[in-house]
Amino acid sequence: MPSKETRDKKTASAWKRWGAPATVVVVVASFASGWGLYRWNVEKHNEALTECRQAETRLTTTAKTGETKLLAEARMVRTDQVVDAGTVTAFQKDALPAEPVKPATCQASQDETALRAAAERMDTQADSRKAAIAKAERAAKAVLASRDAKSLADAKAALKAKQDEGSARLAQTDGQVADDATRERLLQALDAAGKVSSSKPSDYQQAQAAIQAALDQVNASAQAKAEADAQAAQQPAPSYGGVGSAPSYRPPANRGGGGGGYAPAPAPAPAPAAHAAPQGGGSSAQSRLPPLDTNHHGCNPDGSCGIG
Length: 308
Fold this sequence. Notes:
Colicin transporter
């Protein structure tokens, strides 16, 4: 049996051969394990930080795009502009709040658990907001569809009223216009309007505008004829003066001799007859004196007699 000293020497020799390397292996293995755990923790933290920041971006983007053009247009529609006012009421109820959701902050100093919790919370908020946007947009589409339906119905009704007006005016102006071609254009516009079949209010509005333009021309032509007729009616009666004219009115003479009657107009005195100069050199003055009426013995024809 080897002595104790011999056994100690063998143990020391075995330690030198196997113990030191084993210790190194254990230390190295422990270090490697710790380093790997650290690296794993760092990677998990970075992943959590990345997820948190991505969730923050998604929520921020959702909040910014929440008020879409569709929603903004629906907000401008009033209840009197739609067929069904209930669509406006429902949209106002489902409309998004004015204040968007504020995302959480993601800092590198936060631990993995806090970062993942923040990311999950923001993802939930983003999903809720997306669902709210979708619901609000469905309500907005209902509002706009009801508005468009009323616009189409109003356009059809307005065109029908303008067609009735045009037809009535066409009948009223038969023979009452200066240019009958204006009535023909109105008839053509009425025929074209009767053929309109569309889902666009603008098509009915264009047909209405065409009838109105033709109506304006008819009315202008009717006014022109009315003015021409009035002017012709105000022309003075033709004059009958000059040779061959009708005699002027003369009231009848009052033959009864009573007062208050019209006195007869005096007849114009006849022009004196020219007398030839007497033969034998008599005076011209004497030739102008009337001859004495011998039958009245020196008296004038009116019964007066001269003295001597």
